[in-house]
Amino acid sequence: MSFAFLCPVGSVRKNAIAKHDGENNQPSSKEMPFSQALKEQTQHVHDSSEGLAQAKMGLAFADPRVWVALLEQFGHVYAAIEDELMVNANDPHLSPLYDAFFHKLHRAEAFQQDIVYFGGQREGSARCKAVDEYIARIRHVAGTEPVLLLAYAQTMYMALLSGGQVIGRIQRTAMGLKPTDGGGAIFEFALVPTKQQAAFKKSFALALDALPLADDLKMRLIEEKRSIFPRNDQIIREVVANAPLGAYFSLARRFKYHIAAACIVPALAIVAFKQSNAQQYITAAAASAAAIFHSSDAERIE
């Protein structure tokens, strides 16, 4: 939504377990560029969110109401990050990156465009509890130690600029969007065209490495980045928990494979009988079905 929200779907992470088990033996930030340390020392948290992201994507692409709900909630998060980055643009740690990078990546308006495309003109949406807590943390960081906003900007922007590009292609196929249709604004960067994105990300990493950050500050940034993934996950959980029942029927209808439908139907039966573990079963069923759905679409896209 990385935004576990926007983890590349269907990616094979052969080294995930090894990285997790060997985290304590990883080189310190003194022995590697900070951009690399920031990625490697948060990779296991990123990877652990992948299944949840897959479950969300399958359901969201099957029913625009769920997709709009996710866009609304994460739109609040991006808006808060961008507000605080703008307020603190003259901070000595943020200013070298703001003009050259962050202002080119602003997403709040793009989220609104996609919300209108799929849901029509709407009044401002209410924030869920997870978003309220998320934004409270962003505001606190901005008011006490603005440099930690780097963790939010790096995580959330790179999510859309990296894995988000894969998600964007899958979204267009899954939701039946033509190349000329709207609905994918959050994945499109007018100031960073596709052909320039690899160079842009490399330049950003070099600029991040060039910042004069003390070792203890680097560790605080790493810890802050680690905390972002569970916050993203909780938004997904709250949105999925409130998804309309019809969304699961829509998801089942979209699958060509009987096994996918077989994952969903028992979950619906449990809902009908109001079993206490219904939501847990539905989430697991949707995750299994979504993995099949995304694997099929990813193969066609590639």
Short structural description:
With 302 residues, the chain is an all-alpha fold.
Write the layout of secondary structure elements.
Blueprint: H1 16-21, H2 34-40, H3 43-48, H4 50-62, H5 64-87, H6 95-98, H7 108-119, H8 129-144, H9 149-161, H10 163-174, H11 197-210, H12 215-241, H13 245-254, H14 258-272, H15 278-301
Keywords, separated by commas or semicolons:
15 helices, disordered N terminus, globular, disordered C terminus, mainly alpha, 302 residues, single chain
Average pLDDT confidence is 80
| Strand elements, count | 0
Number of helices: 15
User: SSE string, helix = H, strand = E?
Assistant: HHHHHHHHHHHHHHH
Structural class: mainly alpha
* C-alpha Rg (nearest Å): 19 Å
Largest sheet: none
Low-confidence stretches: 1-29, 291-302
Instruction: Give the overall form.
Output: globular
Percentage of residues in DSSP E strands = under 5%
Question: What is the straight-line distance between the termini?
Answer: 21 Å
Proportion in helices: 55-70%
How is this structure best described in words?
The protein has helices at 16-21, 34-40, 43-48, 50-62, 64-87, 95-98, 108-119, 129-144, 149-161, 163-174, 197-210, 215-241, 245-254, 258-272, 278-301. With 302 residues, it is mainly alpha-helical. It starts with 15 loop residues before the first helix and ends with a helix. 41% of the residues are buried. Residues 1-29 and 291-302 have low confidence and may be disordered.
